[in-house]
Task: structure prediction
Amino acid sequence: MIRIALFLGLLLALSGCSGNWGWYVVDPRTTSGWNNLRFLLSGLEYTVYLSAVAITISMTVGLLVALPALSPFPWLRRASRVYVELVRSVPLLVLILWVYYGLPQLTGLTLSVFWAGVIALALSDSAFQAEIFRGGIQSIARGQYEAAYSVSLGYRDTMRYVILPQALRRILPALGNQLIYMLKMSSLVSVIGMQELTRKANELVVVEYRPLEIYTILVLEYLVLILIVSSGVRWLERRLQADES
Result:
């Protein structure tokens, strides 16, 4: 909150020092300014929903890719490695365009803008999630596996009840970083017409011709959103540490 207050103070200082600022375009005291602000904020729901669905899918896929990387079978480890390296090598913007324009031609499926964005974001992030899960699982001591097997737990139950809960506590900061990354990268989906925060700002700039003020508000929107998410992740991390102790 302190950073938000400082940022707002800086904006006020800049607006008073320059005649080039036209804050009337987003001034909530005027009808047009209030309507513009509401228009900008209307993209918040799509940004949050898109990011939440994509991060949920990417974590699931990432875990499924990470488990073969820990397999004793070399061909499973190689398959996991190939997937991670291939997906990480494709820029996200290129992947979004390929999924939206190319995937329907290959599969015959019709993808909405939302689901094209979800698929591209989840696919790109799943490679990073796989490495996070792999590192977290490998950090668990071998004695934990042996203790689970000694009480007749199978591989599935060992992972579900013993290994993954401990690994999740260790990788939570990295997962939080990926969620923040997803929120920021969701702005790229605006190139295919997704009506999220960045797309709304671009449309308003075309109408009002005040890019400096409008994009400044856009920066502030992302700043507040990411600070809220960061605070939530830190709270959950403290909660898990308290439960563990």
Notes: The two ends are 29 Å apart (CA to CA).
